[in-house]
Write a structure and sequence with these properties.
By secondary structure, this protein is an alpha+beta fold. 32% of the residues lie in helices and 22% in strands.
Length: 149
């Protein structure tokens, strides 16, 4: 072999030997030895409260479609909207299985709204929306319908 081949082989061995010491964690510098690192100076992350999503409010003239009690309330908590009545009925069945007591409404444009609560005062309706959003992430788009007379 020539000298340059021996030299290249020797350098390769030195490089590999130094790399293997790094894999074993034998570095001479340890973070705990650093004057800049202390357990009391860990950055503190201030948790920000999750901003509340604004409640969508729509005003529509509605009538109750499928309930024996035809009483019309002023405020409805709406969890779904459909163009086809059969789809709204299927969704209602799904919501009943989840513990809701939904009522189907029809607005003046022929859309079917699925309501899970109805009130004559606004604040309890808003509270219900907040409660649903906190308990059911998948229903975070629930909104408030104000019934027009």
């Amino acid at each position: 072999m020539r000298f340059s081949t021996y030299f290249t082989f020797f350098i390769t061995l030195i490089v590999l030997a130094s790399c293997s010491s790094l894999n074993k964690g034998t570095s001479s510098f340890d973070d705990s030895d650093s004057p800049y690192v202390s357990e009391n100076t860990k950055p503190k992350v201030k948790e920000q409260p999750t901003p509340k999503k604004a409640i969508v409010v729509k005003e529509e003239k509605v009538k109750v479609v499928d309930n024996t009690n035809k009483e019309v309330f002023k405020y409805y908590v709406i969890i779904g909207s459909f163009k086809v009545l059969e789809n709204a009925k299927n969704y209602k069945t799904q919501l009943i299985e989840e513990g809701f007591t939904p009522v189907l409404l029809e607005n003046e444009n022929g859309l079917y709204r699925v309501s899970v609560s109805a009130y004559n005062d606004e604040q309890p309706a808003r509270d219900k929306i907040g409660s649903i959003r906190s308990k059911f992430e998948k229903y975070n788009d629930v909104w408030l319908l104000i019934s027009k007379k």
